[in-house]
Amino acid sequence: MKSSASFRRIRVVGVLAAVVLAVWPVRSAPQDGQSGAGGTTPWPSPLDPQVVRDQDDMTWDDYKPIPGSTWNDPARVASVKTIRLAIVTADFPDFPFVMTMKKGSDLYGNPRVDPVTREEIPKFYADFWNKPQEINRGHTIHEYWMEQSRGEIGVAVTAFGPYRMPKKQFQYGGLRAEDLPAGDATPGNLNQDVDALWMADAGKDIRSEFDLVLRLFAGYDESGVWQEFGEMKFQTKEDITPEFGNPDPAKPRWVRTRYVEWTSWNAGSWLWSNSAIITGEASGAIRHEVSHAAFRIGDNYNNPYVTPYRRVGSGPWDVMDRGSFNGPGGPHKRYSVPKTEGDAMSAGVMLRQKINFGFVTPEQVLTINRNGLATSGLVVANVTARAIDPLPGSLAGIVVRLDGDAPTDRTPADDPATNPLSSGTPNFNFYSMEVVQRLGYDSFTPDNGVLLAKNKDQASTTGGPNGFSVFNWVIDAHPEDIGRVDFKRPNGTPVMRTIADYRQLNDALFHAGLNSGSQFEWTDVPNRLHFYVVDLKRDARGVLTYTLGVRSLDGAGPQVRGVALKGPPSGRFGAAPTGTVAFALDNTGKSAAVPDGTHPANVNSYVDYDLYRLSVSVQGEGWSGALQSALAAVKFGETGSVPVFLSRTPKSASSATITVTATSESDPSKTTHVSYTIRP
Known about the structure:
Elements: H1 5-8, E1 81-91, H2 121-130, H3 141-149, E2 153-164, H4 190-202, E3 212-217, H5 222-225, E4 254-255, E5 263-264, H6 265-268, E6 278-280, H7 286-295, H8 351-357, E7 365-369, H9 370-376, E8 379-384, E9 397-401, E10 430-436, E11 449-455, E12 472-474, E13 485-488, E14 494-496, E15 521-524, E16 529-538, E17 544-552, E18 564-566, E19 578-586, E20 609-619, E21 623-626, E22 631-635, E23 639-648, E24 656-664, E25 671-678
Parallel strand pairs: 1-2, 1-3, 3-6, 7-9
Antiparallel strand pairs: 4-5, 8-17, 9-10, 10-11, 11-12, 13-14, 15-16, 16-17, 18-19, 19-23, 20-22, 20-24, 21-23, 24-25
């Protein structure tokens, strides 16, 4: 692959603290969208600062459109398949559609807008989900799948109803028989009853005319209210007020829920949305549920609320995990009707899913083998943000297959019952590297950066409470506890996010350079792989592309490695207290062809690099120096530029000696350093 001119101008990113001789006063990169006012301004500024935006702090202002895209245009027809989705609406004899109630009148403060009539409900929801308009901020489920598939998959909606269910709302929920009020203890089957009403209305079994059927029932999904109107509203189960309790005063006002010991009877009386597809008016999980049904894929999450805690698989980075909760206001705003907060903007689709769903072509993904890396040597490639097609000279991602004798995943066994950060049984099949940028539906992901994950070929068909069938396992650049409050109890006591909370992965992305607040490399010793985030650039539209690398710990390839450094042509620094001097970094090695069949793809254009680890020291009273990056990738026979950032005090010495060292990552015996004297 030909590198762009901007990548040939290698920016060298600083040096690890262990080898820096002149340490600058720097602080961590700002978190949660804060500017970091009051902290020490770092010099040099981080090349790629990590700025984590927490879900609770997000608003619709966080949405950034994909440059030049019009995926929400209903006139744009999918090139491969338009999913025919029926939305069948139904209410209950004891509970009407929330959207027909007076604004703000129900127990949960909904609806948030003026009501519509019952007869208008089917059209209202068909338009809300699939017609760009002010109330849905122009976002539709057609838009979501067009964006993810680059125009291959769309959604057309037809609405039916409204129908009146034969049983009361709570008879269709997940309540146990003993939790049902006396006289109404016979449970109902929502799917069967809705479909019977629908077919009777149509005069036939109409289901075969659609690819998917969404049964949209009046009210709420227990998933979005069990906590907000349980432990967040009431200090104890004994504090639950009558209006949230069982209509039968002889029975407790609380019930068990999927995750914890109790919630209010009212919150626990609702059906939990599922892949059938059944969902309430307040659920924004429609994109997640469509994924289940359309692509036969299961959930990728676990139960973060009970011990033994088990970390989620991909958290906010994928629609099949809690990324389906993404949107303004965070997960505790998921009960809004209509769906304009909480889970209103699902995350995009991770690379593993994009490959399996056919959303990327083989040419857009570089697929290599672990064992092949030992033969071919280091691979370096440019990868564009996943929200758009790869830019010229770049890819949608890199896949590293764990090939060889069984077990192919050589990660030591680690019991998740004792280690909440364990990925469970070591049976993953490949690594993926991709780039996330907060554009389009990814606007409500928490960060920009590089997403590194282990993946399974076979996705689970089920998921849910503390199962351990995850098929994406994001490598967390910050595995330590994020230390954020989840909510406050009614008495003001803060409850911290558990170690298994999906938002623990908010700061999981890797970043280029030093002092970013994150990491720029990761090593899997058992699987003999070293991953690198080398550099990044933005095009004129602001779209991100990263330079990424991966090598084997067991072989450097057939290339001849070499390195040379040259100081700048002038030894004058000037009168300014800060500035840069550029050193030339020459790749003096020689490329070599890689035998066919070494990898699934032809990698010759990707192994035409060496990767160098850099450091700098400065000697001279009052002088200091640093680099922005500890890494530089340079093609064989080419030269990169290594800017050294210098500063001096008013009473500094009349000269300083700068020493820059560069060492090949592929062959550490190939190392060089150059010392250079500079004067004001």
